[in-house]
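Form 7-S
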Amino acid sequence: MYDRLKKILPIVLIVIVAVFSVLYFFIGRRYGVEYQDALYFLNSERGATVYSAKVDGQSASFTVEGNTVTYHWGDTVYGPYTVREDPTAAPGGEWESLDLIGVEIREEDSILFRGGYTEDLFLFIREDGEPDSDLFHVTYSVNGVEHDADGNVVDPHRPSLSTLIRFSQLPQADTHRGSLMYWFFGLLTAGIAALLIRFDDTLFRWDLSFRIRNPEYAEPSDWEIFSRIFSWIAFTLLSLGLFIAGLVIIN
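Output:
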């Protein structure tokens, strides 16, 4: 087993490094817009701008046409929403110093929000000067299902006010999957594994040279052999884990 692993693992390491380097190259070149830990890719359909992704096993997309935003998740349709800037909707008085941007958001004929928001989309103040209640809602989970303070089920896929405004502004595709830092550390651990395999006896005797005379005559024990195999497999799996983790991260 020892000699077999010593021949097989270097090949496995080469394959891991080669495959993931290619994956990082191609996946890292696909830029999209991040939303709820998913990457939405930009394309055009019949004059509309569409951001598409895969969310919770379902196809998801934001369709933006003019000032109208529609969100699809699986067979569920949210909207259409109309997002229209209106300077007269921004409240004055104590909120005037925040330079709120006036906006009116409708879902079909119903007004969802009319008021102002800060440029970073963090704070929404209604036209009457009251902060939007959706910003401060409390939720709790029961068997994986989110509920609000009144016990009503919260739909995790319904887009928020900030999301509607953000996509209505046609954000640029500026993020991608694949962390170069994780790729580097995956490559580094693969290199360490290769060195441990290639120079197993050399490293063993070099370590002994600080403690005994004539280490070249020493023979590795069963425990030493087990430790070597364990370290080879551990570094190989660590390298694989780092490569995989890096592909999940959105930059």
